[in-house]
Amino acid sequence: MKDELAIQAAEQGDDDAIRAILTQLCDVTHMGFAAVARVTEDRWIACQVLDKIAFGLEPGAELDMQMTICKEIRQTENYVVIDHVDADIAWQKHPVPIFYGFKSYVSFPVILADGSFYGTLCAIDPMPRLISDPATVAVIEGFARDVSALLSANILAHPTRSATTDVHRPQAG
């Protein structure tokens, strides 16, 4: 049974424009799975999903936070792009790609209009994909900004669905 935060995340992601962005993300990257995730200090919850590879997640579903790369993105607010896990020395022995079996990965932070960290826009694929070129990265950054704007508008329009009640900005130092 889904709790309130999981239900909120799925409601916030229930948007045709977000679904269209996930389709565009898969088209641009040639990846088979894309999602917008609500990422808190201890939870990863799918808000919206496009799954062409039978990864098996739907809106409101959760992944073990310790088995995500998104936890690192939440801490740093930097994006991660991996063309080919096996060819990337920094990622080839990382437990997350090994556990899920993906070879390519992108994840970009979703920052709300008030400056708070909401979660990530991410995509994976079991095949290597050339996604690190600057033009592709710029397009994905634009998608993340678009998702941020859509979620910010949705949350402002429905203040009872507040996304920022348990979110804080990391402090330097």
Short description:
Helix content is 35%, strand content 21%. It is α+β, with helices and mostly antiparallel strands and 173 residues long.
Question: What do these coordinates show?
Answer:
This protein is an alpha+beta fold. 35% of the residues lie in helices and 21% in strands. It contains five helices and six strands. The chain has helices at 4-13, 16-29, 70-76, 95-100, 134-157; strands at 33-39, 44-51, 62-63, 80-82, 104-111, 117-125. It has a six-stranded antiparallel β-sheet. The longest helix is centred in the C-terminal third of the chain and has 24 residues, at 134-157. The radius of gyration is 15 Å and the shape is globular. The termini are far apart. 38% of the residues are buried. The model is unreliable at 161-173 (pLDDT under 50).
What's the helix and strand layout?
Layout: H1 4-13, H2 16-29, E1 33-39, E2 44-51, E3 62-63, H3 70-76, E4 80-82, H4 95-100, E5 104-111, E6 117-125, H5 134-157
Antiparallel strand pairs: 1-2, 1-6, 2-3, 4-5, 5-6
Helix pairs in contact: 2-5
